[in-house]
Design a protein that fits this description.
alpha/beta; Rossmann fold; 7 helices; flavoprotein
Length: about 210
């Protein structure tokens, strides 16, 4: 069987970044789950910090630079996506949103997506449900039931209860993503004929013939 192509989008701004660390942990966990199911995995990571100027240029001109085009293609052709953003002002970062604005509107239709975020306090975890999940639902992606948030205290010492809790969330979300990625993708439904409204009204007036 062909390996699962997994795209990982990280929009952390610092180096090193807890956002990138969480993205890598999720990718590793998903890869292990797929290996247990007998599937190989090819991981391609997109670091948005390196594409910030290109993303802004694309929004202004409508033409992507070669580096941005490669990133867009990696996400578009992937079988599954892990998307991780820092939380600013109670929502995803502007850089994160701008990248997904650049994608074709049908690029994520039916694609399994694991949404995750990092933030300075656990209160920001609500952004997963009222910001990230609606975003990917709007893009018609197949979002995993479990989303993952990591606050600074979640990166404690080994054996710490909070660290164990984060590892548990990562494992559960990765298992859900692996199951979706390994499942056969349904064929897109054929477009139904759209009957103009005036013809529908005319049919109601005249009735069956």
């Amino acid at each position: 069987m062909n390996p699962v192509r997994l795209a990982v989008v990280s929009s952390g701004l610092s180096v090193p970044s807890s956002t990138r660390l969480l993205a890598d942990r999720l990718a590793e966990a998903a890869g292990r789950r797929l290996a247990q199911a007998g599937r190989g995995v090819e991981v391609e990571t997109v670091e948005l910090r390196e594409l910030a100027v290109d993303i802004a240029g694309n929004l202004v001109t409508g033409f992507p630079a070669p580096t941005l085009r490669r990133a867009v293609e990696a996400v578009t052709r992937a079988d599954a996506l892990i998307a991780v953003t820092p939380v600013f002002s109670a929502s995803y970062s502007g850089l994160f949103k701008s990248f997904f604005d650049v994608l074709d509107r049908d690029a994520l239709v039916g694609k399994p997506v694991l949404a995750a975020a990092t933030g300075g306090t656990a209160r920001h975890s609500l952004a997963l449900e009222y910001a990230l999940r609606p975003l990917f639902a709007h893009l018609r992606a197949a979002v995993t039931p479990t989303a993952v948030f990591a606050a600074p205290e979640d990166w404690g010492s080994a054996g710490d209860s909070r660290t164990a809790a984060l590892a548990g969330r990562i494992g559960r979300a990765a298992a859900e993503l692996a199951a979706l990625a390994a499942a056969p993708r349904p064929e897109p439904a054929a477009d139904e004929e759209v009957v103009p409204f005036d013809r529908q009204l005319e049919a109601l007036r005249t009735g069956p013939r």
